[in-house]
Amino acid sequence: MKKFPKPQADKFASIRDVLDYAVENYGDSVLYRYFIKGSEIGEITFREFREQVDKIGTALAARGLRTATVAILAESRPEWMATFCAVVCGGGVVVPMDKELQEDQICNFLNRAGAEAVFCSDKYAQRLKADSDSLASLRFIINYDNTATSDALIENYADWIEKGELLLSDGYVEYTNARFDTSKPCTLLFTSGTTGTSKGVLLSQDNLTACLYHSLNMVNIHRGDVLFSVLPMHHTYELVCGQLGGICVGATTCFNNSLKYFLRNIKIFQPTAMIMVPLFLSTIYKKIGEEIKKKNKEKLVKGAIAVTKTLRHVGIDLRGTAFKEVTAALGGRLKNIICGGAPMDPELVDRFYEFGITVCQGYGISECSPLVCVVPYTAPRYGSVGLPAYGTQVKVVLTDDGGREYDAQPDEIGEICVKSPQVMIGYYDDADATAAAFNNEGYFRTGDFGYLDKDGYLYITGRKKNIIILSNGKNVYPEEIEEYLYKLDIIKECVVLAREKDGDEDVITAVIYPDFDQFKGKADAEVISAVKDAVSAINKKLPSFKQVRNIELRKTEFEKTTTKKIIRHKV
Fold first, then answer.
1. Which domain-ending residue is among 183, 203, 223?
2. What is the H or E stretch that residue 532 is in?
3. Residue 75 and residue 99 in contact, taking contact as beta carbons nearer than 8 Å
4. Pick from 9, 315, 321, 515: CA 20 to 30 A from residue 202's CA?
5. Under 8 Å CB-to-CB from 370, ≥6 apart: which residues?
6. Same domain, 332 and 422
7. How many CB atoms within 10 Å of residue 512?
């Protein structure tokens, strides 16, 4: 059985090679489309982007920063990616920062990294200036929004571009002729968590280009595709598979400027493909369902699904016509969605496919740059996160009572371990954590639990640190129960964990944020009663030791990361 399509990309030696290839093959095609002011849209070609990279890199070199550590703190925008490429193509180290971090966390990470410069948008520039006395290494703040006046610390991005352009025209080649070791660190990513527990993941250009090669040869994105960027760019999933991947294949990437206007913007840019996390996918599907219900077309859509499914069995595909009104809400051209970063309800894949949109689920982790597995669109498998990427070895490991590790058999649950060229160099300034992250065979321990089937497809059961161990010794994976709960329309968000009840032993507890829009005008007691009844129905589908024994309701959404993952330790 053919599992993956014919490779569409070569292995690049460096990010500079990626840019050279893109300019040679797509030069004057549009690389980025983005909002400038209000609804005004700007465009940048592949050639213009490469020129901007060289100008910024040259300006960095002239300031003695070619091999320095440089941070980026801003919303998604072309300048973000130009800065990233400029730093790594000169042999420096980029620190992509989460723009939602608290001020003390930002300062902590900048000091830990030893960042000498920060490229940022205006609101962060002012904050950093106020904190400059506590930032020991910081020499330059470069403002993307060009609002700096006469300031000793803050400079305008446009001035750096102009400086680089003048130096290049005068024959300054320190940056453009730079040579460096691509196996050395080029990116320092701080994992989510508090400032005390976050680890710094060190990735090299070799890691990033390996991930690019593997991902592009496994997903259905090509030249001419229009990508809609909704994930934060500091996240490796978006950075490598989305941004660098789009540059490699000649796709046009459009930036969403606000989650609030997501559906409006998707109609404006009319993407053909998207990279997202399951929460976005679920939200989109619920919005579609609400529109169908509002227009009283539930029976009509259900009948159309049945008819088009039957016709596909005889080679006739009318989904594009039958569900034109449904897909119009997503721009009308969307064909492919790559989804990863968190557990996903497998039924969502089927639901989108019924409308003519293919969803390929993947699995990755920052330490693997991040790709580990992808479901082949040529050979999908229900509930799986896919087959290992090209050149990637994945195995499931168990530990016996004596602490000895051994390989699991098919369908046995254990810790997922990975060996691949895209696995990180190690954790920044933490030799002990790096050593603990690898077993004696050199496999990286992901901290995720799951199993491989007989054909090598991987299935995730949950995070190792989230596993609930009951007093009877049974292991419960909360993500599995959450998957059932998320199928309930009245539940908007939930977290399953072990919680003490009535001073007794820990029991499986579901902390639930209901969809209060469905309970307008209802008393709290009615909401609680409806949720309890719905959870009781779910319990009947579960073994007794997995059943929810306690329910806690929330009035507000859970606190989340910028990639929309619930921060579980704060629940």
1. 203
2. helix 524-539
3. yes
4. 9
5. 211, 236, 237, 240, 241, 364
6. yes
7. 25
Assign residue 400 a region (left: φ > 0; alpha: ψ between -120 and 50; beta: otherwise).
beta
Q: Beta partners for 468?
A: 476
Between CA 495 and CA 15 the distance in angstroms is 40
Question: Terminus-to-terminus CA distance in the chain, angstroms?
Answer: 45
Q: How many domains does the chain have?
A: 3
Sign of the alpha-carbon torsion through 475, 479, 483, 485: positive
Task: Please report whether residue 452 resides in a domain.
Answer: yes
Residue 410 near residue 188 (C-beta atoms within 8 A): no
- In a domain, residue 562? The reply is yes
Burial of 183 (0-12, 13-18, 19+ CB in 10 A): exposed
On whether both 399 and 506 belong to a single domain, the answer is no
Do 63 and 157 belong to one domain? Answer: yes
Please give the DSSP secondary-structure letter assigned to residue 237.
Answer: I
| One domain, residues 41 and 155 | yes
Smallest CA-to-CA distance from 204 within 426, 425, 435 is with 425
Same domain, 471 and 431: no
Domain that holds residue 518: 467-570
3-state secondary structure of 139: coil
Q: Tell me, yes or no, whether 46 and 178 share the same domain.
A: yes
Number of H helices, E strands in the chain: 18, 27
pTM, entire model: 0.87
Averaged pLDDT, groups of 10, the chain, 571 residues long: 58 95 97 90 98 98 97 97 98 94 90 97 91 93 88 90 98 96 97 66 97 84 93 92 94 92 92 90 84 88 92 91 90 92 81 91 92 85 88 92 90 95 96 94 94 94 81 77 89 90 79 91 90 93 88 91 78 84
Question: Is 81 part of a structural domain of the chain?
Answer: yes
The DSSP code sequence of 460-482 is: EEEEGGG-EE-TTS-EE-HHHHH
In a domain, 248, yes or no: no
Query: For 360, what's the count of Cα atoms within 13 Å in the CB-facing half-sphere?
Result: 22
